[in-house]
C-alpha cells in the first residue's frame, strides 16, 4: 500500500514555482499586445473589421483589452501594427487603463488609482468569494488553479473562501447574466466593508462576446466600484496573481 | 415507418427541401417505436419559425449503422392545439420538449414535469422566472429540504439544487438551471462575422472549447462544400484528445480532493498543469481557444511542436498511471467510491444518457466509434471503454482508462503526421472566414467531446446566412442522470457524485 504512494511522490517531485514574481510564460502565450502606427492602414482596418468583439479600432488606433479575446487574429492580419507579447502583467485599477494606444510598452498601473486602505487591510491576508455569473468555466478553472500545487498563491495569504461572510472581497467572472444579477448583488452585499471587488476575465470587464446580448444585465458595474480589472479569455493564473500583488503594493509594474 | 433523410457524420449539408415533412401522428408513432430500441437516440429535436409556420426538426442517431436520420414536421404558427408528448413514453425527449415548450409556448399533452428548462431571455412566458421555479415538494414530518445554490461553495458555475431528505438520506434531488443563460444561440444568429461565431463556439462551454469549436466548424465546412486539408483532421483530433486528457485528469484530482486523498489531488493538479501548458505551448491558450478554425489553422503542428507534445504526453501518461495504481490499491478510496451514486444501464438508456457517464453504466455511446468523423473514420478505429457498475468508481476508472487511451492516440496521430508531412513547412492553409454558405440548408457537427456527444445544428436562410444555430452539450441529457444517482445516497456523498459527472452549467443554459 505504501509503495504506490512513494512512486507517485517520487515522480511528482517538487512542483511549486519558486519565485512567482519572476515567472516567464511560453513564447506563444498571447498577453499584452504592442501597437505600432503605420501610414498605410489598410491591414489594420481589415483586422478591425474582423475583430469579434470590436476591441480593435483603426481610427484612432486603440485596442481595448477589456473587450479583447486574445484570439490573435488581428496580429496575423496586420503584423506590422499589432504584435502579441507574452507579458501577463495586464491588470489595471481602472477600466480606461485597459485601452492600449500605439507606443505603450506596459499596461499602466497608477498607485493613485488604488484605494489606500486596500494594502493596509488586506496586505497580509486576503480571502475572496468567487461568483460566476455567466462565466464559461474556463476563468473559474484558472482561478481555482491559482491555489494549486504549482502556483500556490496561498503562500502569500491569498485564497478563496466559501461564504461571503468570511470574505474580504468578491471576484466576478462572466458577463453577468440577467438570471444571476440578483444573486451577485446579494452576495456582494453580504461581504463586510471595507471590501475589494475584482472583475476577472474579458467577459466580466465588458461583457465580451455578450456585451450586446439581451440575456445580460450589467447594472452591477454601474453601481459598484471595481478595484481591479483583469482581462483574459480566460485570465491566466499569472494575470490574476500579478494583478493582485500589484494592487496590494507587493509588486511594482515598471 | 416514416420517411427520413438518411445521412452520416461526414456527408455534406442537406437542402431544407430534401428533408421529409411528415404528420405529427406518424412522427409520434415512429419515434415511440424507434426510441424503444437502445440503438437509437435523439441527438437533437428543436423547433423554429419558418415561413410563417413552426417547423420541428429531429436528428436521430442509429449506433448500429452509423446513420443519422433526419425528419421534420410542421404546425401552423398560431395553432395552439397540444401535441401528444413523446416524453410520456420516452423520458430522453424531456429536455427537448421542455425547451420547445419554454421558447415558443407549444403545449405537449401528457408531458410529465412540464417545467422551464433554462429561462431564456426570449421565452414565451415572461412570468416564469428563476424565483418561481416549480420545485417538487413532499410532505411528511420526518422530511426536510436542503437548498444549495445558485452560488456554490467552490469556484464553479451557478445552479440551484434542492434535496428532499429523510435524515441524511436523499429521497429526491431536483436541479434547476438557467442562471448561466447568456443567449449564445441568438448571438450566433445575429452576426455574419465568422471569426466571432468561432469564438462564440469556444465559449459555449469553456472546458470543452475544442469540442464545441470542432462541432461548429465541421458544420460550417459542410455548408461551404469545400474539402478541408486532411492534415487538419489530425490537428483537431490531437487538440480534442489533449482536452480530454486535461479534463479527465482535473476530475481525477477533484474527486481525490473531495475524499481528502491529497496525494492524488496534488499529483493530478500538477499533471493537469502540464497537459494544458502543452496545449498552451502549441496554440498560446491553455484551453485550446484559437486553435480550431474553419478550413485551416494558425497553429499547424510542426516537427518541433509534435515532438514537444509527444514527449509531454508520454510523461503525463506514465505519471498518471502511477496515480491510477495508487487509487486502486487504497482501500479507503475504494470504500468511498464503490457502490456510490449508482445509475443503472436501464436508467441511462431511458434518459438518453451520452458520453463517459453512459459508458460507465454499460451503455456504449461514443460518437468516435458509432458515428466516426475525421481521423476516427480513417486512421484510428476507436474502441469505446465501457464499465458496467455505473457508480462513482466506474466513472473514475473510465477516466483513468480514457486518459491512457487518449495519450496513445495522440502518440499515434503524431507519428502518422511526421511520416507524411515532416518536409512540408506549413501544410495547413490559413483559416477562411469568408467562404459562402449553401443557402436554405441544414448541416450538423457531431463530435465526442470529453463529456460526451456535442452537437451543433446550423440552418441557413435563402441568402446563406446562419438563421438558426442549435447547440446541444452532453450535459443536457446527463443532468437528469446525476439527479437519479443521488436517490437513496447520503447527502454527504453529493460532492463526489457531482464531480464524477462534472456536467456543464453554461453548456446547458447556453
Which SSEs are present, and which pair or pack?
The complex is a heterodimer of chains A (254) and B (510).
Chain A: H1 2-12, E1 33-35, H2 42-50, E2 56-57, E3 62-64, H3 73-77, E4 82-84, E5 99-100, H4 117-122, E6 126-132, H5 138-145, E7 158-160, E8 169-173, H6 181-189, E9 196-200, H7 202-206, H8 219-223, E10 228-230, H9 237-247
Parallel strand pairs in A: 6-7, 6-8, 8-9, 9-10
Antiparallel strand pairs in A: 1-4, 2-3, 3-5
Chain B: E1 5-7, E2 14-15, E3 21-22, H1 24-34, E4 40-50, E5 53-62, E6 67-76, E7 83-84, H2 94-104, E8 108-109, E9 143-148, E10 160-166, E11 169-176, H3 184-189, H4 194-202, H5 209-224, H6 230-258, H7 262-283, H8 303-328, H9 331-337, H10 345-351, H11 355-360, H12 367-370, H13 374-378, H14 392-421, E12 441-448, E13 453-460, E14 466-472, H15 475-485, H16 494-501, H17 506-509
Parallel strand pairs in B: 3-6, 7-8
Antiparallel strand pairs in B: 1-6, 2-12, 4-5, 5-6, 9-10, 10-11, 12-13, 13-14
Amino acid at each position: 500500500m505504501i509503495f504506490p504512494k512513494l512512486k507517485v511522490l517520487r515522480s511528482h517531485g517538487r512542483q511549486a514555482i519558486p519565485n512567482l514574481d519572476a515567472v516567464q510564460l511560453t513564447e506563444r502565450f498571447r498577453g499584452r499586445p504592442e501597437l505600432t502606427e503605420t501610414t498605410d492602414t489598410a491591414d489594420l482596418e481589415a483586422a478591425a473589421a474582423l475583430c469579434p468583439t470590436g476591441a480593435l479600432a483603426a481610427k484612432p488606433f486603440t485596442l481595448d483589452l477589456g473587450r479583447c479575446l486574445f484570439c490573435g487574429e488581428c496580429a496575423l492580419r496586420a503584423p506590422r501594427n499589432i504584435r502579441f507579447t507574452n507579458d501577463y502583467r495586464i491588470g489595471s485599477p481602472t477600466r480606461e487603463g485597459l485601452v492600449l494606444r500605439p507606443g505603450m510598452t506596459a499596461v499602466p498601473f497608477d498607485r493613485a488609482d488604488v484605494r489606500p486602505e486596500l494594502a493596509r487591510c488586506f496586505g497580509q491576508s486576503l480571502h475572496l468569494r468567487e461568483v460566476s455569473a455567466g462565466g464559461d468555466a474556463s476563468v473559474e478553472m484558472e482561478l481555482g488553479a491559482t491555489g494549486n500545487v504549482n502556483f500556490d498563491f496561498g503562500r502569500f495569504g491569498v485564497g478563496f473562501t466559501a461564504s461571503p461572510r468570511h470574505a474580504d472581497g468578491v471576484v466576478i467572472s462572466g458577463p453577468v447574466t440577467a438570471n444571476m444579477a440578483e444573486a451577485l448583488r446579494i452576495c456582494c452585499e453580504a461581504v463586510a466593508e471595507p471590501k475589494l471587488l475584482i472583475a476577472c476575465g474579458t467577459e466580466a470587464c465588458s461583457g465580451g462576446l455578450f456585451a450586446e446580448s439581451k440575456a445580460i444585465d450589467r447594472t452591477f458595474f454601474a453601481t459598484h466600484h471595481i478595484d481591479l480589472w483583469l482581462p483574459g479569455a480566460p485570465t491566466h493564473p499569472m494575470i490574476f496573481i500579478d494583478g493582485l500583488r500589484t494592487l496590494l503594493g507587493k509588486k511594482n509594474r515598471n | 415507418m416514416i420517411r427520413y433523410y438518411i445521412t452520416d457524420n461526414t456527408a455534406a449539408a442537406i437542402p431544407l427541401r430534401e428533408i421529409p415533412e411528415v404528420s405529427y401522428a406518424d412522427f409520434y408513432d415512429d419515434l415511440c417505436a424507434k426510441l424503444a430500441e437502445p440503438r437509437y437516440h435523439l441527438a437533437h429535436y428543436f423547433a423554429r419559425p419558418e415561413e410563417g409556420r413552426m417547423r420541428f426538426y429531429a436528428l436521430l442517431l442509429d449506433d448500429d449503422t452509423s446513420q443519422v436520420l433526419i425528419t421534420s414536421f410542421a404546425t401552423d404558427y398560431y395553432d395552439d392545439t397540444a401535441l401528444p408528448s413523446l416524453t410520456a413514453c420516452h423520458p430522453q425527449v424531456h429536455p427537448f420538449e421542455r425547451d420547445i415548450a419554454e421558447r415558443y409556448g407549444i403545449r405537449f399533452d401528457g408531458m410529465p414535469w412540464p417545467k422551464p428548462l433554462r429561462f431564456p431571455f426570449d421565452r414565451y412566458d415572461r412570468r416564469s422566472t428563476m424565483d418561481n421555479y416549480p420545485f417538487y415538494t413532499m410532505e411528511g414530518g420526518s422530511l426536510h429540504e436542503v437548498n444549495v445554490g445558485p452560488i456554490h461553495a467552490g469556484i464553479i458555475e451557478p445552479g440551484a439544487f434542492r434535496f428532499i431528505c429523510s435524515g441524511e438520506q436523499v429521497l429526491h434531488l431536483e436541479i434547476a438551471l438557467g442562471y448561466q443563460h447568456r443567449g449564445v444561440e441568438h448571438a450566433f444568429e445575429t452576426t455574419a462575422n465568422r471569426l466571432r461565431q468561432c469564438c462564440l463556439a469556444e465559449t459555449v462551454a469553456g472546458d470543452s472549447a475544442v469540442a464545441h469549436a470542432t462541432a461548429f466548424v465541421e458544420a460550417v465546412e459542410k455548408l461551404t462544400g469545400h474539402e478541408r486539408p486532411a492534415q487538419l483532421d489530425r490537428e483537431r483530433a490531437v487538440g480534442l484528445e489533449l482536452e480530454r486528457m486535461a479534463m479527465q485528469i482535473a476530475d481525477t484530482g477533484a474527486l481525490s480532493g473531495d475524499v481528502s486523498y491529497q496525494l492524488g489531488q496534488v499529483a493530478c493538479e500538477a499533471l493537469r498543469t502540464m497537459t494544458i501548458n502543452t496545449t498552451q505551448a502549441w496554440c498560446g491558450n491553455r484551453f485550446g481557444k484559437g486553435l480550431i478554425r474553419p478550413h485551416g489553422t494558425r497553429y499547424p503542428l510542426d516537427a518541433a511542436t509534435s515532438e514537444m507534445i509527444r514527449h509531454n504526453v508520454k510523461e503525463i501518461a506514465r505519471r498518471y498511471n502511477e496515480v491510477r495504481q495508487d487509487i486502486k490499491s487504497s482501500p479507503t478510496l475504494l470504500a468511498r467510491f464503490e457502490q456510490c451514486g449508482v445509475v443503472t444501464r436501464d436508467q441511462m438508456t431511458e434518459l438518453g444518457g451520452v458520453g463517459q457517464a453512459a459508458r460507465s453504466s454499460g451503455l456504449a455511446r461514443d460518437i468516435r466509434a458509432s458515428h466516426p468523423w475525421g481521423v476516427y473514420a480513417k486512421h484510428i478505429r476507436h474502441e469505446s471503454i465501457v464499465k458496467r457498475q455505473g457508480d462513482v468508481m466506474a466513472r473514475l476508472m473510465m477516466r483513468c482508462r480514457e486518459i491512457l487511451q487518449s495519450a496513445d492516440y495522440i502518440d499515434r496521430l503524431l507519428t502518422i503526421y511526421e511520416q507524411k508531412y515532416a518536409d512540408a513547412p506549413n501544410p495547413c492553409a490559413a483559416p477562411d472566414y469568408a467562404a459562402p454558405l449553401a443557402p436554405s440548408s441544414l448541416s450538423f457537427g457531431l463530435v465526442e467531446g470529453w463529456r460526451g456527444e456535442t452537437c451543433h445544428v446550423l440552418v441557413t436562410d435563402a441568402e446563406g446566412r446562419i438563421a438558426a444555430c442549435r447547440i446541444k452539450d452532453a450535459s443536457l441529457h446527463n443532468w437528469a442522470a446525476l439527479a437519479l444517482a443521488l436517490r437513496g445516497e447520503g447527502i454527504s456523498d453529493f460532492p463526489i457524485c457531482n464531480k464524477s459527472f462534472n456536467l456543464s452549467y453554461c453548456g446547458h443554459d447556453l
